[in-house]
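Progress against Task 2.4 (sequence-to-structure conversion) is shown through the following example record, which the project officer requested during the mid-term review.
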Amino acid sequence: MAPQQENAPAVQPVQQQERQLVRTADVDLRADDVLKAIGQVKDRARAVGGFAGQENSTKKSGSVTVRVPSTELDKLVQDLANVGEVTRSEVKSQDVTDQLVDVESRIATQRASVERLRALFERAGSTSEVAQVESELTKRQAELESMQRRSESLKGQVAMATLTVDVATTPIAPPEEEKVGFLGALAGGWNALVAVTGVVLIGLGAMLPFAVALGMPAFAVVYLLRRRRRITQTNEAG
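C-alpha cells generated for the chain above:
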C-alpha cells in the first residue's frame, strides 16, 4: 500500500518576507596585552547578550570567536577600538531567505505526509500493512526532524551574528632605515667631512700649547740674527 501525501500549507512568498541575513565579522587588533584584550572582547560580547565560543591565545597572539545578537554586531565592532588598535575590520552578510523559505516549505510538506501516514497506520488491518506503514512513517519522521534542525540552525545564525577577533602584540618600532642613492651618499659625505674637521680641530687645539712654547725661542733667535746682520752691514758701509 503506497502512502499518499496531502497538499502542504501555503508558504508566504519570498518577496513578502523580511530578508533573513546571516552576519559575520572579522577584526584584527593590536594590543600591548593579548590575554587582557581577549578578555575585554568576551566581556563586551556578554554585555550585549552574547557569549564566547572558540578561543586560543599565547602571550604574542590569540583569537576568540563570540556570538552576539545581529542587531548589536555593528556597535560591538566599533567598540573594539577601545580594546586595541584596529588594523582590519570586515563585516559580511549572507542572505538565507530563500533557504529558509525552501526548508519551511519542505517541513510543511513533510509534516502533512507524516500526519497522513499516522492516519493510515491507525487504519491498517493486516500485519504486513502495519509493518509497511510503520517503516515509512519512521523514515518520514526522521526526515522531518532533520529539516527542523536545519531550520533552527539557520534561524539561530540569523538571530546571532558571529564575530572573530584576532589579537597580536603591538610591534616595536624598527630602527630608521639608512638613506640610499644620491641623497644618502651626500649625507654620508657631509657627516664624514664634519667628523674629519672635528678631528683636525681637536688636533690643532692639542698642538697649540707646544707651538707657542717652541715658537717663542725660535722667534727670538731669528730676531737676533736679523739684528746682527743689520749692524754688520752698517759697519761695512761706514
